[in-house]
Design brief:
Elements: E1 2-7, H1 14-17, H2 20-27, E2 32-37, E3 50-51, E4 61-62, H3 64-73, E5 81-90, H4 93-100, E6 104-108, E7 114-115, H5 117-122, E8 126-129, H6 139-150, H7 162-165, E9 183-184, E10 187-188, H8 198-216, H9 218-226, H10 233-244
Parallel strand pairs: 1-2, 1-6, 4-7, 5-6, 5-8
Antiparallel strand pairs: 3-4, 9-10
Helix pairs in contact: 4-6, 8-9, 8-10
Bound molecules: adenine.
Length: 246
């Protein structure tokens, strides 16, 4: 997969994209990132990329010329282009999964008050938000999106299945996790987790996930009840117990 990010702040990306899982994915050739500095395409003598908004108001708006030229130069025309914006479709597991199957896509990051609407319209951009809050620019949202998408590409995580078991990908929140030592400052790890009985361990994890989801995310829990796929006999029993506690 190739992801090209158009930004006025390309240096923000290198430390994140070259580290850890994303860095390894790039080294393995599963992913390639490119950043394009929109400022490099400005024909203004001061390399300006924004101007005051028509209609008045505070802030600055990205001007069409550098953005159009940068998008055309990197081959974004006719391709899937995302624009990170709090007005957009909320990033969720469905969108992340959908993007993980793309060969290539582009991301435009805006700043200040946003970008001239003609940039969004001409390149048929999809606006994507990472939450109902406003950040100072689209760079951090773009990195969040890239991380969420990259870990779904087969081979990026050492065990591809693992990413589907975690948290919302199974439809439930992930169960509590413990590691050594068994007792720390008097607090004990649940015994079932180190007795070696995998059936009991799975049962404990499933029950823990169910209870956590029911309490913290009743919306996800309701969805899980409607569409949880095949359950084992043990799982059915655990689910019935948790449901009977309504
Ligand atoms: N740019 C500023 N805030 C944003 C948000 N919440 N999501 C995506 N892009 C943004």
């Amino acid at each position: 997969m190739k992801i090209t990010v158009l930004t006025q702040f390309p240096d923000m990306f290198a430390p994140v994209l070259s580290e850890s899982i994303l860095g390894r994915a790039a080294e393995k050739g599963l992913l390639s990132f490119d950043t394009v500095n929109i400022r490099d395409y400005s024909l203004d003598k001061h390399r300006k990329t924004d101007d005051t908004p028509f209609g008045g108001g505070f802030g600055m708006v990205m001007t069409p010329q550098p953005a159009f030229d940068a998008l055309r130069a990197c081959g974004a025309e006719g391709k899937r282009v995302l624009y990170m914006s709090p007005r957009g479709r909320m990033l969720d597991k469905d969108l992340a999964l959908e993007l993980s199957k793309e060969e290539e896509f582009f991301i435009l990051c805006g700043h200040y008050e946003g970008v001239d609407q003609r940039i969004i319209d001409a390149f048929r951009m999809e606006e994507v938000s990472i939450g109902d809050y406003v950040l100072t620019g689209g760079e951090l949202p773009a990195m969040v999106l890239i991380d969420a998408v990259a870990r779904l590409i087969p081979g990026v995580l050492s065990d591809h299945e693992a990413c589907f078991e975690e948290s919302v990908y199974s439809g439930l929140l992930e169960h509590d996790q413990y590691t050594k030592p068994r007792v720390y400052e008097g607090m004990e790890v649940p015994e079932v987790l180190y007795n070696g009985n995998h059936r009991l361990i799975h049962g404990w994890e499933y029950e823990n996930s169910l209870r956590l989801t029911k309490k913290r995310r009743p919306d996800l829990f309701e969805k899980y009840l409607e569409d949880h796929g095949e359950l084992s006999k043990d799982e059915k029993k655990i689910l019935d117990t948790v449901l009977s506690e309504y």
